[in-house]
Amino acid sequence: MMLVRLGSSLMGSKTPARASIKSRQFVSSSNADEDVVRHDDTSNTTVSKMVHQVTWRAADGDVSFPVHDGELLRTATLRRGLVSPHNGNARLINCRGLGTCGTCAVEVASSSAEGAVEPKERTKVESLRLSLPPHGGPSQSPHLRLACQIQVKGDLIVTKRTGFWGQYEQQAERSPMKTYFGELEFVMDRKSPTDTIEDENL
To answer: Is the omega angle on the peptide bond into residue 119 within 30 degrees of 0, that is, cis?
Structure first.
């Protein structure tokens, strides 16, 4: 009788779907652009996740970190806590992802195949902002993009230039990550995968 009651109790229990998601442990890999498997302890199933490698080039030394497929570059850098896409006081004074301030401008190059970011070409928001001072000069790199507007879809090499808007030619030193408003820093991000908050440390 005891076994029957115990068995029916277990069969009648249900695990909330959200609890199932939170139980997954993300296993990071040093090899970029490969499927990484997460294991769900509650249902004994696995879920594949694509991870890419971002190399941030800086005057005081490069840093590399893994990024979820589809994450906005600005969101990824801030959540990893290694570097900020904003220089100096721009870490506080920026548009939080609207694409209107231009302070997260970075040069982006693919270290693998084409299609390392989406969209491949500048959006209308990017084109407008990067055509305005202090950007928009004749020497502007064609690879200049706004980190808040592009999703990582492959291995990337990112270079940040000096200046409040990253508008000068010299390579900037790494700006320590600092967020002033917690999750409000990402309020405009509607593109990054929803479970990156749980896996932000990969």
So the answer is: yes
Give CA–CA dist 163/172, Å, rounded. 8
Q: In the chain, which residue ranges form alpha helices assigned H by DSSP?
A: 2-12, 17-22, 73-80, 124-130
Contact between 121 and 162 under an 8 Å Cβ cutoff? The reply is no
Give residue-wise pLDDT tens across range 85-144: 999 999 999 999 999 999 999 999 875 556 799 999 999 999 999 999 999 998 899 999
Secondary structure of 46-84 in the HEC alphabet?
A: EEEEEEEEEEEECCCCCEEEEEECCCEHHHHHHHHCCCC
Question: CB neighbours of 185 closer than 8 A, spacing ≥ 6?
Answer: 78, 96, 179
Q: Tokens 């231009």 correspond to what residue? A: 102
**Alpha-carbon distance values, 175 to 62, 106, 193 (Å):** 12, 13, 25
Residue 171: predicted pLDDT: 96
List pLDDT tens digits, range 133-183: 999 998 899 999 999 999 999 999 999 999 999 999 999 999 999 899 999
Cβ neighbours for 142, distance < 8 A, ≥ 6 positions apart: none
